[in-house]
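This section describes the prediction task in plain terms. A model, or a person checking by hand, is given the sequence of a single protein chain and must write out its three-dimensional structure as a string of C-alpha cells. No templates, partner chains or ligands are provided. The sample shown here is typical of the held-out split.
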Amino acid sequence: MSSVGKSLLTAIVGYHLSQKGLKVSPFKAQNMSLNAFATSEGEMAFAQAFQAWACGQRPSVRMNPLLLKPMGHMISELIFMGKSKGLLPTKTFKSYKSTYKEKIFALFQELLKENDWVVVEGAGGLAELNLLPDDFVNYELTKHFQIPFILVGDIDRGGIFAQIWGTYELVSSLKALSLGFVVNKFRGDPSLFEEGISILEQKTSKPCLGLITYFSETLFEEDSASFRFKRASSSGEGLRIAVVYYPHISNYLDFDPLNLQEGVEVLLTDHPQDLEVAHAIILPGSKNTRASLAYLHEKGLAAKIRSLVGKKVILGLCGGFQLLGQTIVDQGVEFRGEVAGLGLLPHTTYFYPVKRACSQELYLDWPFYQGKVSGFEIRYGRSFLADKEVFALCRNMVFGTYLHGLFYQDDFRHAFLSFLARHFGLPAPLYTHFSHCLAHKLASICAQSSVAQFLGKLDRVLNLD
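The expected answer:
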C-alpha cells in the first residue's frame, strides 16, 4: 500500500546494484504526487528523479511517464512524458488508462534494452481489485513482462499479516513471480518477530527477504500521506528553519538537502509559535495558492509572518513567492477573482492557462548570493513589477523566487546557511556537497544490519553474489 517505504527501498536497491558496476534505471509507470522535478524534457515525480541519482543516472521523464498532480476538489492535472495534458476529474481517469497502457509498455521496453537492470516501483497496493482492469502500474505490467517482484509491508502501521498474506491470496495469479516479501519499519528486538516471520513464510510459501528496522530519520519523504521532517531534538545551538505547512503544499522536497546538513534543524509546521523560535521561515510551493493563503490567515500564520519581517529571514519559493506579493489575480486556472497577498514583496501575480515546466538558469543579486543558479520551474503563475516580469525579488530580509531546487546547489545552500549563521551569531556551517552527502547516506543505510541482510539475500536470489 502507500507509505510502506517502496520509494526509498527502490532507491536503495538501485544504488546497491549500481555499486556493482551495473547500469540501473528506476521506473514507475504512474505516480500521484505534488513533489515534481523538471528536466529539459518536462515534469516527472521527484521520487524517480531521486532514484535516478541513487542509480548514478540523470533523471528522465521516461522513468515516470505518467504523473497525476492532485488539484483539490477531486481534480488532478495529468502529465504525460513531461507535458501537461490538462485537468482531469479523478473519477474519469479510469477511462483514460487504456489510452496510455501500450505507450507506457513501449517506454518500459526501451529502458529494458538500455540498462542491465530496471528497478520498478509499484503504486499504492498490488491487490486493489477495483483498479486491475487496464492497470499498467502494478498488475498488468508485472504480468505482461513477467517481472520478479518483492512485496513490501509496513509493520509500524499494523496489520502486517493481512498486508502480506492477504495480498498474495488476492493476486494469486502473480504469486509465482514473487521473490519473497519484506517486513519494513520494524521497531524493537527482531527476535520478537521471529514467530511472525515463520507464520508468514508458512502461510504464503514465500521467504522473508528482510526484516528492516525503522529508520529514525528518513532520507526523503516522497508520499504526501506520511511526509514529515524527522530530526533529533534541537540542542538550541544550531540553525532552525521553519517550513510553513499549508494545504496543497508541493515540492516540499526542495528542503531535503537541509536535512542532510549537520547543525541544521528543519521543522515542517503550521503553528505560529514555531516561527518565533526559527531563524528562517520558508514558504514552499503550492498547487492551490489561494487555498494555501486562506489557510495562513485561518491559522494565524499570515499575521505572525508579517510581524516577524526584519527579525527573521523569510524565503518564498514558487507558490510561496506568489504568496509574498501584493496581489494574486486568476481568471480560472485555480480560482476566479483577485486576492491580496501577504504584501511583503512588491509584485503582482497573474495566472495563465499555459504552464511553464522546464529546467532554468537564473541570475540572483541577493545580499548573500550574487551569481547564477540553476534549477527548475513548474508553474502557471507569472509575476510582474511595474509591467516587467520578475523571477526573483528581495526586500527587508524577505526573499522570493520561482526557482525550485536551489538547496540542491552546494554554493547557494552554503551561502544561505552562512548568511543565517552570521546574522544570528551562530557558528559557521561546514561546506558540504549534496552528491557526497547523498552517497554517504545511501551507503550508511545499506550498511545497517537489517538492510545489509536484505541486500545479501536479494543478491542470492538474483544470482549476483
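For orientation: The chain has two domains: 6-218+439-461, 239-426.
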